[in-house]
Design brief:
Layout lengths: L8 E4 L5 H12 L3 E6 L3 H11 L3 E5 L5 H14 L5 E4 L20 H29 L2 E8 L10 H21 L4 E8 L13 H10 L8 H12 L10 E4 L7
Parallel strand pairs: 1-2, 1-4, 2-3, 4-5, 5-6, 6-7
Helix pairs in contact: 1-7, 3-4, 4-5
């Protein structure tokens, strides 16, 4: 079973800013109904929803809280229809600043747990809330957001990368279990993006180094990442599941 994007209701977690906002805009440009989830970025999410028009709305929830997620899904369903596409983009507060990162001698389990709670726990709560709807209609699309640091930890952000590695594992195990329901589960992994709130602390020199080492000769943008997310949600990816597509201009192969 396939469904055109303009007949889909898409839930994008962490859509108030950065990559999430770019993903929301991309779906809206294809005519989809778009639910923008936010935790704290109310003004940004509501402003973006207004820009996207009547087929979009902003919905508050901490995705690590199952009760808040259930309430949000009820609100989305009443306003836009039950989501049949989930894009789990939400990120615990993080800054890509290599000089300020926690090195192994200072790293705490609490830091890893905080990242994992949003990356993996948030995915789990959203999937569990939407699974009955997916099962009832025999269709669903789940796209998680990962990182190429799992393949090439050029900067060892231990907590962030460990959480995204765990999310990749959940993406693949969920693909195995949900496949019989007509649900595909895939990951899009980016590199350093120019520019999001998380990468705003990255020095220009680092962007230049990454660009010089990338076959395409430039740093990937949030809009280019969003294109790959659209692919996994579209009918053209109907036979693709359990995959991790790295979108970084060719910096990391495979």
């Amino acid at each position: 079973m396939t469904r055109p994007l303009n007949d889909s209701t898409v839930l994008v977690t962490g859509a108030g800013r950065g990559l999430g906002a770019a993903i929301a805009r991309a779906f809206a440009s294809e005519g989809a109904r778009v639910a923008l989830n936010y935790r704290n970025s109310a003004d940004a999410a509501e402003q973006l929803a207004q820009q996207l028009g009547p087929r979009a709305g902003a919905f508050q929830a901490d995705v690590t809280d199952a009760a808040q997620v259930a309430r949000m899904i009820t609100q989305i369903t009443a306003t836009l229809g039950a989501p049949d596409v989930l894009v789990h983009n939400a990120l615990a507060d993080f800054s890509f600043n290599g000089d300020a990162r926690a090195t192994l001698d200072r790293l705490t389990w609490d830091s890893i747990a905080a990242q994992t709670e949003t990356a993996v726990g948030g995915a789990l709560t959203c999937i569990q809330a939407l699974q009955p709807h997916f099962a009832a209609q025999g269709f669903g699309r789940i796209i998680t957001i990962g990182t190429n640091l799992v393949q090439n930890p050029v900067v060892p952000y231990h907590d962030y990368t460990a959480a995204k590695g765990a999310l990749l594992a959940l993406t693949r195990t969920a693909a195995k279990e949900l496949g019989p329901l007509g649900v595909t589960v895939n990951m899009v992994s980016g590199g350093l993006l120019r520019t999001t709130d998380a990468s705003a602390a990255t020095p220009d020199a680092v962007f230049d180094i990454v660009a010089s080492q990338t076959p395409l000769g430039r740093v990937t943008t949030p809009e280019e990442m969003a294109d790959a997310v659209l692919f996994f949600a579209s009918p053209w990816a109907r036979a693709v599941t359990g995959q991790n597509l790295i979108v970084d201009g060719g910096l990391v192969f495979g």
